[in-house]
Amino acid sequence: MSEPTASAPKAAELAALARTLDAADDLAPVRERFALDDVVYLDGNSLGALPAHVPDRMADVVRRQWGELRIRSWAESGWWTAPERIGDRIAPLVGAAPGQIVAGDSTSVNVFKALVAATRMAGEGRTEILVDATTFPTDGYIAESAARLTGCTLRAVTPQEVPSALGDRTAVVLLNHVDYRTGRLHDLPSLTAAIHASGALAVWDLCHSAGALPVGLDEHGVDLAVGCTYKYLNGGPGSPAYLYVRSELQPRFDSPLPGWNSHQDPFGMSPSYAPAPGALRGRVGTPDILSMLALEAALEVWDGVSVAAVRAKSLALTDFFLRCVSEYSGPGRVQCLTPDSHAERGSQVALRCADAGEVMKRLIARGVVGDFRHPDVLRFGFTPLYTGFGDTERAARILGEELAR
Amino acid sequence: MSEPTASAPKAAELAALARTLDAADDLAPVRERFALDDVVYLDGNSLGALPAHVPDRMADVVRRQWGELRIRSWAESGWWTAPERIGDRIAPLVGAAPGQIVAGDSTSVNVFKALVAATRMAGEGRTEILVDATTFPTDGYIAESAARLTGCTLRAVTPQEVPSALGDRTAVVLLNHVDYRTGRLHDLPSLTAAIHASGALAVWDLCHSAGALPVGLDEHGVDLAVGCTYKYLNGGPGSPAYLYVRSELQPRFDSPLPGWNSHQDPFGMSPSYAPAPGALRGRVGTPDILSMLALEAALEVWDGVSVAAVRAKSLALTDFFLRCVSEYSGPGRVQCLTPDSHAERGSQVALRCADAGEVMKRLIARGVVGDFRHPDVLRFGFTPLYTGFGDTERAARILGEELAR
Fold first, then answer.
1. Is A37 annotated as a binding residue?
2. Taking CB atoms and an 8 Å limit, are B290 and A291 in contact across chains?
3. Which positions does the record annotate as the modified residue N6-(pyridoxal phosphate)lysine (chains A, B) (predicted)?
């Protein structure tokens, strides 16, 4: 098919190194908690793999909770309180104390809640929303809608430009913790501090960081945050997103989507709205229970796993991948968009190359699953819970072969 | 325990009549499509029963589609197009041609989309939203938020007051097709016509009518509609709601939640928003696939079932229930809140009685499941797909016994 681009001794050395790294990996046994096959699955930053115990759990939810208990499950199976219970399970993964997160709705809907509520908490005369110009597009679209409905102006700036863009008029800044395309990790502590120094509120989108690295929401005084749960949290396709509202701000959180689930007495069926205290006020309508409880079950793979250990392994994996890519692909075939500095790297590697769409198709055909981002980016996500160094070496080797074709 | 309130010959006569009615019921075999037990389940207007084939379908979705195909399922298992495919499956049940409904989000979120978009389509100077004062509360709370964000005023009126409340300033009217508490069916054709005659738009909430009676969205020119799918559509706990936008209005549908799923080129990842054509523009973020596909599977119980037949049986069931309640409970023990006229009756019977909460608990303990609505209402929902006349007689008989205690 193709000439190997690294010498055979070099390949043997990398494979041996991978075995050594896998043998020393304390997280290696966690892989057994997932239903995996021989594929090297490097797309957990798009859809996390299936935790092995989830199918039986879902069978119970469907057959017994819905099928037998039916309506009684709202109380007896804990359906009604699932959004806040799951929020509290996510909380330690993003550095939040309990009572500040609820699960539910999509990330887009939660961005809307967070931004509109933030503009309502902003000081007098603060009528500008700053949004990450490099964001996953939906955040920008929703920010535009929030600005339009609240009479604010909207300005798109890169995270690097945020400090100089902040001013007396800034109400809120919406930023991504990790850029979905390049895998660049932004400096949440210092950007949050700069935003606060200007008197504005910070809203962070954690879709590409939660479950892959420490976030420290409470420690860094983040005001509001949103995130999805189907990437590094492995909650299942389209599993519910979540909303974090810092406890001090909760009394002033004034939702643009005040559905009955956020009422202080939802079953009182009062015609007038009175918000529940705490994180509950981020709820809206009846939650998607099947998706919600699959997510709750999936979060059990985190039992006994520390985010610090995950972060250490994530950096070791991406370091090793970059080294292997360099060895196997040779110079000039790919351009790495992901920062080399650990402080600026999430848990994915983005490589720009010619014909990226075609290259990714061939990789997938050969059992290495990453994804393609228009127009020329190969994305490889590293989920330390189930990705090993051997997988990583194999992926880089096959990529090198395909690039050499 | 208690004296029977109907004579034994009378009870025997009603039981015999129930058997005759069940024997003549063309829909009786449809009950086999559900996982049911000996309980008389009259709470399908809150959570529909489990269709028997759904557990196996969900096992496949979880184990194979998520667990084995993983990310490929977005294309290969049709995940991406589920919202509009499911919308088209719901369409005939509510009298809509294809291409006008998308499934996704909660009812509350869809009410928000519909109301804000409607105010944007309303004529010059039309800045008042009318909302059903008797509505399920969430619609009112969301309407208040929509009014606040769009600079409109909000006025709560009963459906009966709508014609006289309409005027040059009316932008949109949000009405419930069936009152969740009393089971009263409102006159959708004539109210929609009155709303249109005044130059306003009509938004209907179909939560308590879809799947229980003909709606005729297209026939009656309804502008926008929303509904849940976990009641008479049996989609599962908190299953996704849906949004209908009449095809002629779609080009002007300007969503307040323009998430990336509603973009004309969602994978182009453009920083600027351009809405998809058609019903797709009602989508927002990534759909909850597990809940979505359970709903899709559940809708198969409708194969070969006509809504007209369901409506005919529904009226026969509620007529028979009211007759049995009258015979078994005697005069004065309960007050029926549901209209006697077929033209004004949905598919539930609401009875007001003393100690309603306690009475319902005792009914449930005896295998008759309805629900209690604060402060004094017993609600019994009749799902013609799986409720028979024998069930109905038994429920009324046990109710009579409990009321006589």
1. no
2. yes
3. 231
